[in-house]
Design brief:
This protein has 403 residues and is an alpha+beta fold. The chain folds into 3 domains: 24-133, Butyryl-Coa Dehydrogenase, subunit A, domain 1; 137-236, Butyryl-CoA Dehydrogenase, subunit A, domain 2; 242-399, Butyryl-CoA Dehydrogenase, subunit A, domain 3, CATH 1.20.140.10. It has helices spanning 24-48, 53-61, 80-93, 95-114, 119-131, 242-283, 292-319, 323-326, 329-357, 359-362, 371-382, 386-399, and strands spanning 135-138, 155-158, 161-171, 179-185, 195-201, 205-210, 224-233. The strands form 2 sheets. It has a 4-stranded antiparallel β-sheet, with no helix packed on it. A 3-stranded mixed β-sheet has the order 1-4-5, covered by helices on one side. α1 packs antiparallel against α2 and α1 runs parallel beside α3 (80-93). The protein is globular, with a radius of gyration of 21 Å.
């Protein structure tokens, strides 16, 4: 049962039904911020592989970091379609900023939906809205082969407190986050799949950095490994099992907001290609440039990608209050296919835009430069390797009876 249905924090952040209304003023605020702040620092963030601090500060000032917190707890009650639109808008200017925003909102929505009757977690959501806290995720762990539904580390409880030590292979923007949501076994004698999700506060957490982050694209997410050591009140352990949190919220929301951010990359590339074609057309009035046909194909592909993401949000909205449907094998397969489909399309879209712009797109010193978009686009396929998702789907299809 969802938190909203059980009397806990309302689930307005995602309980949007089949045809939600997107508040255009909220998206417009994000677009203005993206154009005035995010775009100005994107190249430097990429070049230096640094955290997009100016962009996150601007999101915080605009109250967009806490926008998914329900209004009655001090947030803006942003729906998932609104978060999706913001991710795409940010992604058009800086994929790193869009991904940081997306990953943070996944954590917020997990707490919103699965806090149950916890006054401590309700209070934390109020604090998130008031202080515009940034939350990171520590679901991966060395030694489990990338399977976030398995944990080696465990929670140890004593006297109403817990301790937790985890060797996390990745905590994106871990050095810059306020707090972290961590997966762990429920207890030292629990099975690896018997997991809980724990909110650890930065003041009670030690993060020891492991390695460096120097990548082809998505360079500003700063997704380093860390040795995490934390303690806290046992009330910071979300009451719902992680299996439920993952199936009902983390898994579908992650793939929807991630693909929305990648849709921003594709939108940016298509926009640049169209500007190039228009510039070519102005050189010979009345003559349609040969590459205009390629631009028309690009727009068709972009519209198809948008439809895929929109369809996934629609299905999630229809199923939102039906936990059994959300945990169904068919729905899990389709959410995996959402991620696979968009991540496999975004690179060809940017490549086709590059072929339209030619040397002007290849060079970094022109208004039509596409190098950053192309490098960021390649990150989509390796952020949870598509082969891993195909393998998961292959196993699920052996027992799923849905088409």
């Amino acid at each position: 049962m969802s938190a909203g249905a059980s009397g806990g924090p309302p689930d307005s952040a995602a309980a949007f039904g089949a045809a939600p209304t997107v508040r255009q003023e909220l998206v417009a605020s994000a677009k203005e911020l993206a154009l005035e702040v995010v775009s100005k620092h994107a190249a430097d963030v990429d070049r230096r592989g640094r955290f997009p601090q100016e962009s996150v500060d601007a999101l915080r000032k605009a109250r967009l970091l806490g926008c998914a917190v329900p209004e009655e707890l001090g947030g803006l009650g942003a729906t998932l379609p609104e978060l999706s639109a913001i991710c795409t808008t940010l992604g058009e200017q800086c994929a790193t900023t869009a991904m940081v925003f997306a990953m943070h909102q996944i954590q917020v929505l997990c707490i919103v939906r699965h806090a149950g009757n916890s006054q401590l977690l309700r209070g934390y959501l109020r604090e998130c809205a008031e202080k515009q806290l940034l939350i990171a995720s520590a679901t991966s762990e060395l030694g489990v082969g990338g399977d976030i539904r398995t944990s080696l580390c465990s929670v140890e409880e004593s006297g109403g407190r817990f301790t937790l030590n985890k060797e996390a292979s990745v905590i994106s923007y871990g050095e810059y986050t306020d707090d972290v949501l961590v997966t762990a076994r429920r207890s030292p004698d629990a099975a690896p799949s018997d997991q809980v999700l724990v909110l650890v506060r930065r003041a009670e957490t030690k993060l020891e950095k492991k390695g460096e982050w120097d990548t082809l694209g998505m360079r500003g997410t700063c997704s380093l490994g860390f040795m995490l050591r934390a303690e806290g009140d046992i009330g910071q352990i979300l009451p719902a099992p992680f299996a439920e949190i993952s199936a009902q919220t983390m898994h579908p929301v992650s793939h929807i907001v991630w693909t929305s951010a990648w849709l921003g990359i594709a939108t940016s590339a298509v926009s640049i290609a169209r500007k190039y074609v228009r510039a070519e057309a102005r050189k010979k009035p009345g003559v349609v440039p040969p590459n205009a046909l390629r631009a028309a194909e690009l727009v068709n592909q972009l519209h198809g990608m948008r439809a895929i993401v929109k369809d996934a949000m629609h299905e999630y909205g229809v199923r939102y209050h039906d936990p059994d449907a959300l945990e169904g094998l068919g729905f899990q397969i389709r959410m995996n296919n959402l991620k696979i489909s968009i991540s496999e399309q975004v690179v060809p879209v940017v490549q086709k835009a590059l072929s339209i712009c030619g040397i002007s797109g290849y060079r970094n010193d022109t208004p039509y430069a596409l190098g950053r978009q192309l490098r960021d686009a390649y990150g989509a396929g390796v952020m949870i390797l598509n082969d891993r998702l195909y393998g998961t789907n292959a196993k699920l299809l052996l027992v799923s009876k849905e088409d």
